Amino acid sequence: MLAGLAVLVGARGSAASEPEVAPRSLKQLAAAKGMRMGSSFAWGAQGADRGSFANPAYAALLMRDCSLLVAENEMKWQALRPSATQFDFARFDAMMAWADANALPVRGHNLLWHQPKWMPRWEETHDFGATPARAAERLLVDHVSTVCGRYGSRIRSYDVVNEAVDPKDASLYQTALSRAMGSPEATLDLAFRTARRAAPQAQLVYNDYMSWEPGNATHRAGVLKLLEGFKTRGVPVDALGVQSHLVTQGIDARATIAELEGEWRRFLDEVTAMGYGLVITELDVRDNSLPADVAVRDRAVADFTRGYLDVMLAYPQLRDVLLWGMTDRYSWIEGFEPRKDKPRRRPCPYDAAFKPKPMYTAIAAALAAAPHRA
Ligand code: 9MR
């Protein structure tokens, strides 16, 4: 059935001329290559206009295209930890229940977002008492063990640590936890070692947004240094989560890619040479340096996505690709960085009316052209 598809798909690397792809779902195309396709999703009240499992229109997209899911926000400390002594699993449990009912595996995002800005407010002013290192260790170990223990083998991949490297100078952020424990390294290492014990079956991922666009060299260097440090210290980290919040650099995707590709491959080569796997954890595209015209923007975003995925999918270490949302309607980017000229951002494979865009076709074509995973 899928064999016929290859006939309809043009040669790999034809970023500018989009090949025609049969209307197969992304998860089917991925499965044919030994891969999985996924997306973030949210909690929502029944029928609410959100990127939620409880919104039938959104759930239909998840069911059609995804073989893997991730909670956009509901597993973070900010969501799970109203205080140092409490957990609130209600929303995330509801998401897990829906995923289980539909036989969809879920990745865990995340066990520690190591920046003060993204930890719960109480944590930064928490009183760690007379033996602060021990108390901070206990808090972190308790969090990781409780979350991993609760979901057991239902979660087989965790972003254990998220965004610990400061892109400004490649240093590691400090939080109340790392100040109490004496160093960020001690904190991150403990998170991974605890996750390995509490979820021995799970892939443990360091997740960050260092990317291939200009301006990311320092961030990439910091991430490499961190990954080297994990190896030296024998910390159990299995893969790098490459978030892939891409930013277009102009209309000519092919020219941009030709410029960015070399350095980006060198980065990925260094990561994989250390033995790390790769996961695309949060793919979407910010349509910068492009005119407002929808057709022009969609074309350039699709070409950029295709070129990026062609580079990434050439790495056999990459088996899972997750989008940060299926439709433009609920994308975080509109709130984070709206276009200065006002038209709505178009970062996802489906538009705000749930119609597939050229980006969808580009992802499908990249999957169809990808080498098969053993
Ligand atoms: O998309 C998420 C947004 O709704 C939240 O307000 C924000 C803070 O929790 O996090 C966003 O997701 C981020 C992800 O967790 C980590 N990588 C960057 C993502 C986009 O900011």
Quick one: CATH class? Alpha Beta
Radius of gyration: 20 Å
The total tally of domains equals 1
How far apart lie the N and C ends?
A: 20 Å
Count of runs of 4 or more consecutive helical residues: 14
> Stretches where pLDDT falls below 50 for ≥5 residues?
1-22
Give the overall shape: globular
Features:
about 375 residues, alpha/beta, TIM Barrel, 9 strands, globular, disordered N terminus, binds ligand 9MR
What does this structure look like?
By secondary structure, the chain is α/β, with parallel strands linked by helices. The protein has helices at 3-8, 26-31, 56-65, 77-80, 90-101, 121-124, 132-151, 176-181, 184-198, 217-233, 253-273, 294-313, 333-336, 358-369; strands spanning 36-41, 68-71, 106-113, 155-162, 203-208, 239-242, 245-247, 277-286, 318-323. An 8-stranded parallel β-barrel has the order 1-2-3-4-5-6-8-9, surrounded by 4 helices. Bound molecules: ligand 9MR. Ligand 9MR binds next to loops.
Q: In short, what is this structure?
A:
This protein is of the alpha/beta class and 374 residues long. It has helices at residues 3-8, 26-31, 56-65, 77-80, 90-101, 121-124, 132-151, 176-181, 184-198, 217-233, 253-273, 294-313, 333-336, 358-369, and strands at 36-41, 68-71, 106-113, 155-162, 203-208, 239-242, 245-247, 277-286, 318-323. Helices cover 42% and strands 15% of the residues.
